[in-house]
Design a protein that fits this description.
This protein is of the alpha+beta class. It is built from four helices and seven strands; from the N terminus they run E-H-H-E-E-E-H-E-H-E-E.
Length: 150
């Protein structure tokens, strides 16, 4: 079931996100960051088990970022990520955002959903504020993608 995240989801989200972060496949998140940004998150659960999560974070006037996007490995390619992404996109449209973007090591997933690769230099400077916390800063090898919402 897809829904907005609630307090009891935070530790499960933290474990899932940081499982991928430990493999250097995404940016790590602290518990405090997840609590502070809880309203940005959607989760997908089944029988009280968290199978996936992702967030829409407003970064600047017309930009929203899809971040902390993770699905349990054994549940990959079952539509969970697509549902989470669709919910984030619907919320972005409802908020009046013109574009959503992501930085990822899995560009093919996002390209299937209408995102296109862009040069990092085309993204607003403000979006790089989170990058200082990344263990790969300042040499980022994530791939930036953007989707115009029209």
């Amino acid at each position: 079931m897809l829904r907005k995240a609630i307090i009891k989801d935070v530790e499960k989200m933290w474990k899932l996100i940081n499982l991928y972060a430990d493999k250097r496949q995404m940016l790590p998140r602290s518990l405090s960051e997840l609590y502070e940004n809880l309203r940005d998150f959607y989760v997908y659960t089944e029988n009280d088990q968290l199978l996936g999560c992702g967030a829409l974070h407003i970064t600047w006037g017309d930009y929203g970022e899809i971040l902390s996007f993770a699905v349990e490995a054994e549940k990959a390619r079952q539509g969970i990520g697509s549902e989470i992404l669709k919910a984030c996109e619907q919320e972005a449209r409802a908020l009046g955002l013109a574009k959503i973007f992501t930085l990822t090591y899995v560009p093919e997933f996002f390209e299937k959903h209408g995102f296109v690769r862009v040069d990092k230099a085309t993204l607003p400077h403000k979006i790089w504020s989170m990058c200082i916390k990344c263990p790969k800063f300042p040499i980022c090898d994530e791939i930036p993608l953007v989707k115009e919402l029209g």
